[in-house]
Amino acid sequence: MTTNYRKAAVIGCGFVGASIAFRFLQQGLFSHLVLLDANREKAEGEAMDLSDGLPYGASMEITAGTYDDLADCGLVVITAGVNQKPGETRLELIGRNAAILKSIIGEITARPFGGILLIVSNPVDVLTYAARTLSGYSRERVIGSGTVLDTARLKQLLGEELGVDSRNVHAFIVGEHGDSELAVWSGANVSGLDLDDFCRLRGKALSAGDMDRLYREVRDSANEIIKRKGATYYGIAMAVGRIAECIVKDEHAILPISVTLEGEYGLDGVALSVPAVVGKNGLEKVLEIPLGEAERSALSASVQQLREAVGSLKPRL
């Protein structure tokens, strides 16, 4: 079956899935968007509601569908799963969401699907590894939203701290999309200017304590939002929209997506979020960026947590 790279699907029409669908409508990336949910009426309602905005948006078709409609999709975004509760870590979601993912992947692989799987459900790194294992697809075709959102949070907070447009801030959050993630301060810059040099030129001081505070704000951001409104969905919708844009437009952009490592950073048998080149085929290249000694140690600790999580999951795959 021929793959239609301008056809996408979102599986799971909760807050996150519906927000992603709305973002896709705004972007005008696709000519056809298919919505799937365990509650068929929910998918139908979202498709109807979104379609009402088409006269003021992009020219596209938005429908509720079935797994048969996914066969020729260029991109399938999986958001289905239970939500993270207040005080609950993303890794604590493993058992519940792994079972849901296994059912979904079984349905997709039963069809001649040749597109890209983008995992958004949490814990995203563990479920990206599970999706790759269950599907048997190449790692280029099975990626996760990773720390694209976390990185955006860091860029925004750092931009506010330095009094500069966050789009000029370049810094990464890597590792687990969760409590063990780390900020790569050693490579942070503002439009090519080393962070220390920019602070000096700007007359700003950014101490180690300031950097630790910003990192903690990023790490704890989801919990703080969940405490206040019950869930996070707008930020991740923007992040997924950015990943989709890189794929559809074949941008060869660099984003910290979740990928299964095959020797990079001396690691394999685990998926985690690291900078990678993203284009029309999904993952193009994992980038092994330089890390300071403390950053390497923090990454190792993050990997250890993910390995333990994957180990607990393997009997169910």
Description:
42% of the residues lie in helices and 21% in strands. The protein has 9 helices and 14 strands. It has helices at 15-27, 40-51, 94-109, 124-135, 148-162, 195-202, 208-229, 234-248, 293-313, and strands spanning 4-11, 32-36, 61-64, 73-78, 116-119, 142-144, 169-170, 173-174, 182-183, 189-190, 193-194, 253-262, 268-279, 282-286. A 6-stranded parallel beta sheet has the order 3-2-1-4-5-6, with helices on both faces. A hairpin with a 7-residue loop joins strand 8 and strand 9. Helix 3 packs parallel to helix 4 (124-135). It starts with a strand and ends with a helix. 44% of the residues are buried.
Q: Major beta sheet, specifics?
A: 6 strands, parallel
Radius of gyration: 19 Å
User: Which ranges are low-confidence, i.e. pLDDT below 50, for 5 or more consecutive residues?
Assistant: none
Shape: globular
Cα distance, first to last residue? 28 Å
Largest beta sheet: what is the strand line-up?
A: 3-2-1-4-5-6
Strand content: 15-25%
Number of domains: 2
Please, what is the CATH homologous superfamily of the largest domain? Lactate dehydrogenase/glycoside hydrolase, family 4, C-terminal
Q: State the secondary-structure class.
A: alpha/beta
H/E element order: EHEHEEHEHEHEEEEEHHHEEEH
CATH architecture of the largest domain: Alpha-Beta Complex
Number of strands: 14
CATH level 1 name of the largest domain = Alpha Beta
Average the pLDDT over all residues and give the rounded result.
94
Question: Helical region count?
Answer: 9
Q: What do we call the CATH topology of the largest domain?
A: L-2-Hydroxyisocaproate Dehydrogenase, Chain A, domain 2
Helix share, percent: 40-55%
